Protein backbone atom coordinates (compact mmCIF):
# COMPACT_ATOMS: atom_id res chain seq x y z
CA UNK A 1 0.00 0.00 0.00
CA UNK A 2 1.00 3.62 -0.51
CA UNK A 3 2.86 4.93 2.54
CA UNK A 4 3.45 8.30 4.17
CA UNK A 5 6.99 8.17 2.79
CA UNK A 6 5.63 8.86 -0.71
CA UNK A 7 5.40 12.60 -1.39
CA UNK A 8 3.35 14.09 -4.24
CA UNK A 9 4.78 17.44 -5.27
CA UNK A 10 4.49 19.86 -8.22
CA UNK A 11 6.70 18.96 -11.15
CA UNK A 12 9.58 21.39 -11.61
CA UNK A 13 10.99 22.32 -14.98
CA UNK A 14 14.36 20.92 -13.91
CA UNK A 15 12.82 17.48 -13.34
CA UNK A 16 11.27 17.20 -16.82
CA UNK A 17 14.36 15.62 -18.49
CA UNK A 18 14.27 12.85 -15.87
CA UNK A 19 10.89 11.73 -17.27
CA UNK A 20 11.95 11.23 -20.88
CA UNK A 21 11.61 7.44 -20.75
CA UNK A 22 9.03 7.27 -17.97
CA UNK A 23 6.05 6.46 -20.21
CA UNK A 24 5.52 2.80 -21.18
CA UNK A 25 7.39 1.92 -24.42
CA UNK A 26 4.14 1.01 -26.21
CA UNK A 27 2.98 4.60 -25.89
CA UNK A 28 5.79 5.59 -28.27
CA UNK A 29 5.66 9.08 -26.76
CA UNK A 30 8.59 10.73 -24.94
CA UNK A 31 6.98 12.23 -21.85
CA UNK A 32 9.54 15.01 -21.56
CA UNK A 33 8.53 16.39 -24.96
CA UNK A 34 4.88 16.56 -23.94
CA UNK A 35 5.67 18.19 -20.60
CA UNK A 36 8.01 20.74 -22.16
CA UNK A 37 5.40 21.74 -24.75
CA UNK A 38 2.68 22.40 -22.18
CA UNK A 39 4.92 23.65 -19.36
CA UNK A 40 3.92 27.09 -18.08
CA UNK A 41 0.59 27.22 -19.91
CA UNK A 42 -2.31 28.45 -17.74
CA UNK A 43 -4.40 25.35 -18.55
CA UNK A 44 -1.70 22.87 -17.51
CA UNK A 45 -0.26 21.49 -14.28
CA UNK A 46 1.71 18.33 -13.44
CA UNK A 47 2.87 16.52 -10.31
CA UNK A 48 5.36 13.79 -9.47
CA UNK A 49 5.46 11.26 -6.65
CA UNK A 50 8.79 10.66 -4.90
CA UNK A 51 10.11 8.08 -2.49
CA UNK A 52 13.52 8.83 -0.94
CA UNK A 53 14.19 11.27 -3.76
CA UNK A 54 13.34 8.78 -6.53
CA UNK A 55 10.51 9.62 -8.93
CA UNK A 56 7.93 6.84 -8.59
CA UNK A 57 4.94 8.30 -10.42
CA UNK A 58 3.60 11.21 -12.44
CA UNK A 59 0.31 12.72 -13.53
CA UNK A 60 -1.05 15.94 -15.05
CA UNK A 61 -4.25 17.87 -15.51
CA UNK A 62 -5.56 20.10 -18.29
CA UNK A 63 -8.17 22.65 -17.25
CA UNK A 64 -10.80 23.95 -19.63
CA UNK A 65 -13.50 26.47 -18.74
CA UNK A 66 -15.84 24.09 -16.89
CA UNK A 67 -14.18 20.71 -17.37
CA UNK A 68 -10.84 19.11 -16.68
CA UNK A 69 -8.77 16.20 -17.96
CA UNK A 70 -6.47 13.85 -16.10
CA UNK A 71 -3.63 12.46 -18.17
CA UNK A 72 -0.32 10.61 -18.24
CA UNK A 73 -0.93 8.94 -14.88
CA UNK A 74 2.09 6.64 -14.78
CA UNK A 75 3.62 4.62 -11.96
CA UNK A 76 7.13 3.16 -12.24
CA UNK A 77 6.97 -0.67 -12.49
CA UNK A 78 8.49 -1.45 -9.06
CA UNK A 79 5.80 0.64 -7.36
CA UNK A 80 2.69 -0.63 -9.14
CA UNK A 81 -0.24 -2.36 -7.41
CA UNK A 82 0.51 -0.59 -4.15
CA UNK A 83 -2.13 2.14 -4.38
CA UNK A 84 0.16 4.81 -5.82
CA UNK A 85 -1.78 5.14 -9.08
CA UNK A 86 -4.99 5.69 -7.14
CA UNK A 87 -3.23 8.17 -4.86
CA UNK A 88 -2.01 10.25 -7.81
CA UNK A 89 -5.43 10.08 -9.47
CA UNK A 90 -7.19 11.28 -6.31
CA UNK A 91 -4.68 14.11 -5.97
CA UNK A 92 -5.45 15.26 -9.54
CA UNK A 93 -9.19 15.02 -8.86
CA UNK A 94 -8.79 17.16 -5.76
CA UNK A 95 -6.89 19.80 -7.74
CA UNK A 96 -9.53 19.98 -10.46
CA UNK A 97 -12.42 20.11 -8.02
CA UNK A 98 -10.68 22.83 -6.01
CA UNK A 99 -10.46 24.79 -9.26
CA UNK A 100 -14.24 24.42 -9.74
CA UNK A 101 -14.27 21.83 -12.54
CA UNK A 102 -17.26 19.51 -12.25
CA UNK A 103 -16.85 17.34 -15.37
CA UNK A 104 -13.66 15.29 -14.95
CA UNK A 105 -12.49 13.21 -17.89
CA UNK A 106 -9.78 10.76 -18.89
CA UNK A 107 -8.99 7.97 -21.31
CA UNK A 108 -8.02 4.76 -19.52
CA UNK A 109 -5.41 2.14 -20.25
CA UNK A 110 -6.24 -1.48 -19.46
CA UNK A 111 -4.09 -1.21 -16.32
CA UNK A 112 -5.69 2.02 -15.16
CA UNK A 113 -9.35 1.31 -15.85
CA UNK A 114 -10.01 -0.78 -12.69
CA UNK A 115 -8.47 1.97 -10.57
CA UNK A 116 -10.67 4.64 -12.14
CA UNK A 117 -13.79 2.51 -11.76
CA UNK A 118 -13.09 2.10 -8.03
CA UNK A 119 -12.89 5.87 -7.68
CA UNK A 120 -16.22 6.29 -9.48
CA UNK A 121 -15.39 7.00 -13.12
CA UNK A 122 -17.89 5.67 -15.67
CA UNK A 123 -17.38 4.77 -19.33
CA UNK A 124 -19.00 7.13 -21.83
CA UNK A 125 -17.58 5.75 -25.09
CA UNK A 126 -14.84 3.43 -26.36
CA UNK A 127 -12.13 4.67 -28.69
CA UNK A 128 -10.98 2.33 -31.48
CA UNK A 129 -7.32 2.48 -32.53
CA UNK A 130 -6.41 1.70 -36.16
CA UNK A 131 -3.19 1.48 -38.12
CA UNK A 132 -2.38 0.84 -41.75
CA UNK A 133 -0.62 2.12 -44.84
CA UNK A 134 -1.27 5.80 -45.55
CA UNK A 135 -3.47 6.18 -48.65
CA UNK A 136 -2.25 8.30 -51.59
CA UNK A 137 -2.86 12.04 -51.27
CA UNK A 138 -6.06 13.04 -53.05
CA UNK A 139 -6.44 16.72 -53.98
CA UNK A 140 -9.82 18.22 -53.11
CA UNK A 141 -10.91 21.76 -53.91
CA UNK A 142 -12.85 21.99 -50.63
CA UNK A 143 -9.64 21.67 -48.58
CA UNK A 144 -7.41 24.64 -47.90
CA UNK A 145 -5.01 25.84 -45.19
CA UNK A 146 -6.56 27.50 -42.16
CA UNK A 147 -5.92 31.25 -42.18
CA UNK A 148 -6.25 33.80 -39.35
CA UNK A 149 -9.69 34.83 -40.56
CA UNK A 150 -10.87 31.25 -39.89
CA UNK A 151 -9.85 31.29 -36.25
CA UNK A 152 -13.23 32.15 -34.72
CA UNK A 153 -15.10 29.64 -36.89
CA UNK A 154 -12.57 26.89 -36.15
CA UNK A 155 -12.80 27.45 -32.40
CA UNK A 156 -16.61 27.53 -32.52
CA UNK A 157 -16.64 24.23 -34.44
CA UNK A 158 -14.37 22.76 -31.77
CA UNK A 159 -16.76 23.94 -29.03
CA UNK A 160 -19.70 22.30 -30.80
CA UNK A 161 -17.95 18.97 -31.34
CA UNK A 162 -15.95 18.70 -28.09
CA UNK A 163 -18.63 20.18 -25.83
CA UNK A 164 -15.83 22.10 -24.10
CA UNK A 165 -14.46 25.61 -24.15
CA UNK A 166 -10.77 24.90 -24.68
CA UNK A 167 -9.55 27.87 -26.68
CA UNK A 168 -6.17 28.29 -24.86
CA UNK A 169 -5.20 24.71 -25.76
CA UNK A 170 -6.63 24.42 -29.27
CA UNK A 171 -5.36 27.85 -30.36
CA UNK A 172 -1.79 26.59 -30.15
CA UNK A 173 -2.40 24.23 -33.10
CA UNK A 174 -4.37 26.43 -35.51
CA UNK A 175 -1.41 27.85 -37.43
CA UNK A 176 -0.81 24.63 -39.38
CA UNK A 177 -4.48 23.63 -39.61
CA UNK A 178 -6.69 22.85 -42.59
CA UNK A 179 -10.38 23.48 -43.15
CA UNK A 180 -13.15 22.00 -45.26
CA UNK A 181 -15.06 24.77 -47.05
CA UNK A 182 -17.12 23.69 -50.04
CA UNK A 183 -17.23 27.17 -51.64
CA UNK A 184 -15.65 30.54 -50.89
CA UNK A 185 -17.82 32.30 -48.35
CA UNK A 186 -19.55 29.08 -47.30
CA UNK A 187 -19.56 27.83 -43.71
CA UNK A 188 -16.44 25.97 -42.58
CA UNK A 189 -17.72 22.44 -41.98
CA UNK A 190 -14.58 20.70 -40.79
CA UNK A 191 -11.15 21.31 -39.28
CA UNK A 192 -7.96 19.23 -39.29
CA UNK A 193 -5.16 20.13 -36.88
CA UNK A 194 -2.16 17.97 -37.86
CA UNK A 195 0.10 19.28 -35.08
CA UNK A 196 -2.41 18.45 -32.34
CA UNK A 197 -1.01 15.11 -31.13
CA UNK A 198 -2.18 12.41 -33.59
CA UNK A 199 -4.05 14.96 -35.71
CA UNK A 200 -7.49 16.16 -34.64
CA UNK A 201 -10.29 15.98 -37.23
CA UNK A 202 -13.66 17.47 -36.26
CA UNK A 203 -16.48 18.06 -38.71
CA UNK A 204 -20.16 18.95 -38.78
CA UNK A 205 -21.10 16.27 -41.32
CA UNK A 206 -19.83 13.05 -42.88
CA UNK A 207 -18.79 14.56 -46.21
CA UNK A 208 -16.46 17.06 -44.57
CA UNK A 209 -15.25 14.63 -41.92
CA UNK A 210 -14.45 11.73 -44.25
CA UNK A 211 -12.68 14.02 -46.72
CA UNK A 212 -10.53 15.45 -43.93
CA UNK A 213 -9.92 11.99 -42.47
CA UNK A 214 -8.56 10.68 -45.79
CA UNK A 215 -6.39 13.79 -46.02
CA UNK A 216 -5.17 13.29 -42.44
CA UNK A 217 -4.24 9.65 -43.08
CA UNK A 218 -2.26 10.62 -46.18
CA UNK A 219 -0.80 13.74 -44.57
CA UNK A 220 0.52 12.64 -41.19
CA UNK A 221 0.79 8.93 -40.76
CA UNK A 222 -1.02 5.64 -40.78
CA UNK A 223 -2.62 5.71 -37.33
CA UNK A 224 -5.96 7.06 -36.20
CA UNK A 225 -8.15 6.85 -33.10
CA UNK A 226 -11.92 7.07 -33.60
CA UNK A 227 -14.84 7.03 -31.14
CA UNK A 228 -16.95 3.94 -31.73
CA UNK A 229 -19.96 6.23 -32.16
CA UNK A 230 -18.52 7.48 -35.47
CA UNK A 231 -19.50 4.51 -37.63
CA UNK A 232 -18.72 6.36 -40.86
CA UNK A 233 -15.11 7.08 -39.88
CA UNK A 234 -14.56 3.53 -38.66
CA UNK A 235 -16.05 2.22 -41.90
CA UNK A 236 -13.65 4.35 -43.95
CA UNK A 237 -10.65 3.19 -41.93
CA UNK A 238 -11.58 -0.43 -42.54
CA UNK A 239 -12.33 0.23 -46.20
CA UNK A 240 -8.81 1.61 -46.58
CA UNK A 241 -7.39 -1.59 -45.07
CA UNK A 242 -6.63 -0.25 -41.61
CA UNK A 243 -6.66 -2.81 -38.81
CA UNK A 244 -7.89 -2.25 -35.28
CA UNK A 245 -5.16 -2.94 -32.73
CA UNK A 246 -6.43 -1.46 -29.47
CA UNK A 247 -9.51 -0.15 -27.69
CA UNK A 248 -9.64 2.24 -24.72
CA UNK A 249 -12.55 3.76 -22.82
CA UNK A 250 -13.19 7.44 -22.34
CA UNK A 251 -14.43 7.85 -18.76
CA UNK A 252 -16.06 10.62 -16.76
CA UNK A 253 -16.49 11.51 -13.09
CA UNK A 254 -19.38 13.88 -12.62
CA UNK A 255 -21.47 14.87 -15.64
CA UNK A 256 -20.13 14.10 -19.08
CA UNK A 257 -19.70 17.19 -21.26
CA UNK A 258 -22.21 17.67 -24.12
CA UNK A 259 -19.81 16.49 -26.81
CA UNK A 260 -20.65 14.94 -30.20
CA UNK A 261 -18.54 11.77 -30.60
CA UNK A 262 -20.06 10.99 -34.01
CA UNK A 263 -18.49 14.24 -35.25
CA UNK A 264 -14.95 13.33 -34.09
CA UNK A 265 -13.27 11.71 -37.10
CA UNK A 266 -9.80 11.54 -35.54
CA UNK A 267 -9.04 12.01 -31.87
CA UNK A 268 -6.05 14.15 -30.95
CA UNK A 269 -4.89 12.53 -27.73
CA UNK A 270 -6.04 10.78 -24.57
CA UNK A 271 -5.01 13.66 -22.33
CA UNK A 272 -7.70 15.98 -23.70
CA UNK A 273 -10.32 13.96 -25.54
Task: Write up this protein.
The chain is of the alpha+beta class and 273 residues long. It folds into two domains: 6-101, Aminopeptidase; 130-247 and 254-266, Aminopeptidase (3-Layer(aba) Sandwich). Helices cover 25% and strands 29% of the residues. It has an eight-stranded mixed β-sheet with strand order 1-2-3-4-5-12-6-11, with helices on both faces. Strands 7-8-9-10-13 form a five-stranded antiparallel β-sheet, sandwiched between helices. A hairpin with a 3-residue loop joins strand 3 (54-63) and strand 4 (67-75). The mean pLDDT is 95.
Could you list some keywords that capture this structure?
five-stranded antiparallel beta sheet; 2 domains; single chain; 29% strand; eight-stranded mixed beta sheet; Aminopeptidase; 273 residues
Which secondary structure elements does this structure contain, and how are they paired or packed?
Layout: E1 6-10, H1 31-38, E2 44-51, E3 54-63, E4 67-75, H2 84-98, E5 103-107, H3 113-119, E6 122-131, E7 143-145, H4 151-162, H5 167-170, E8 178-180, E9 190-193, E10 200-203, H6 206-219, E11 223-227, H7 231-239, E12 243-253, E13 264-266
Parallel strand pairs: 4-5
Antiparallel strand pairs: 1-2, 2-3, 3-4, 5-12, 6-11, 6-12, 7-8, 8-9, 9-10, 10-13
How much helicity do the residues have? 25-40%
Overall shape: globular
Q: Number of helix segments?
A: 7
Structural class: alpha+beta
Strands side by side in the biggest sheet: 1-2-3-4-5-12-6-11
Radius of gyration: 19 Å
User: How confident is the prediction overall: mean pLDDT?
Assistant: 95
SSE order: EHEEEHEHEEHHEEEHEHEE
Report the β-strand fraction as a percent range.
25-35%
The CATH class assignment of the largest domain is Alpha Beta
**Main beta sheet:** 8 strands, mixed
In CATH, the topology of the largest domain is named: Aminopeptidase
Give unreliable regions as ranges: none
Q: How many beta-strand runs?
A: 13
Q: Cα distance, first to last residue?
A: 31 Å
Number of domains: 2
- CATH architecture assignment of the largest domain: 3-Layer(aba) Sandwich
Amino acid sequence: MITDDIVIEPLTKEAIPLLRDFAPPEWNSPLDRFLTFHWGQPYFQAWIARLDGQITGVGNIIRHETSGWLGNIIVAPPFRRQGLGQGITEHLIDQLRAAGRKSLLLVATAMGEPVYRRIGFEVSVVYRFFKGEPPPMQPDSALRPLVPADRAAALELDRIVSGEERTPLVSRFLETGWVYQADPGATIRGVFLPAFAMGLVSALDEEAGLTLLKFKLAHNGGKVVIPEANKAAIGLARQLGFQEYLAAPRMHLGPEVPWQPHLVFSRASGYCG
